[in-house]
Amino acid sequence: MPSPSHAVAQAKQALGARLREIRLVAGLTGRDLGDLTGWHSSKVSRIEHGRQTPSDNDISTWCRHCGADDQAGELVASLRTIDEMYVEWRRMQRTGLQRLQQAAVPLYERTTCFRVYEPSLIPGLFQTAEYALALMRAVVAFREIPDDSAQAVEARLQRQKVLESSDRRCVVILEEAALRNRIGDVEVMAGQLGRLLTVALRPNISLGIIPIRDRAMWPTNGFWIFDKERVLVETLSAELTVLQPREVALYAKAFTELADLASYGAAARTLIASAIAALDT
């Protein structure tokens, strides 16, 4: 998978290429468009080659003078995707982890369907306090940021309350490795796997587990789909936000394929029980 920074650069280039195509279809040169808009022709070139990010107004002006007003809305949506898609973890976490947990609350509260794929961790919505604390302490140590782990855990547990509403649905696909990747000690993992068995019984939650032996799709980062609105992808260095409808649909397609690989019901519970039994070895 390309790095987030590479993905941003590609997105800027793709936006510029679309704007160039609109200009060419309109039969305008870069100088022509510059004269119509009052811009220097070099600005047109920089935008088209992804070296300058246009504003919302730039896109609207471009489309208006090229007779393509009907395309302005989609292009502005693409621009906002670029603006939001790459946020460095260090900037988000510079004051600790609590603020980051709280910032996501509005998104969680307006989401009616969560689709979550995690290859190596139990997702935050299902975490026990002990598991979350062990994980956050590891993050704090690695990133060398202020330690507000206890407060961040409390904020994460508060966020889990969104699943108490029967109007919200949560579909989670885990790799079997997520059950066996030890976060904290044996007791912490036993408690976490036990909670997983419990939450999987809720009527608004669907839990699928992809057995290691059945892995048939290429490796990918974990990702969360919030309704059809956006996708969040967490990497080592950043959080990638995807808003472009075509890209959201691509993640939805990947989620469907991953879901087809998963085991459910009794078969999933057997995999969890096996992971619990393996804690004693």
TrEMBL record:
GO MF, any single term: DNA binding
InterPro entries found in the cross-reference section: Cro/C1-type_HTH (IPR001387), DUF5753 (IPR043917), Lambda_DNA-bd_dom_sf (IPR010982)
SMART domains linked: HTH_XRE
One Pfam family it belongs to: DUF5753
CDD domains cross-referenced by the UniProt entry: HTH_XRE
Alphabetized Gene3D superfamilies for the sequence: lambda repressor-like DNA-binding domains (1.10.260.40)
Residues covered by the HTH cro/C1-type domain: 19-55
PROSITE patterns: HTH_CROC1 (PS50943)
Protein name: XRE family transcriptional regulator
Lineage: Bacteria, Bacillati, Actinomycetota, Actinomycetes, Streptosporangiales
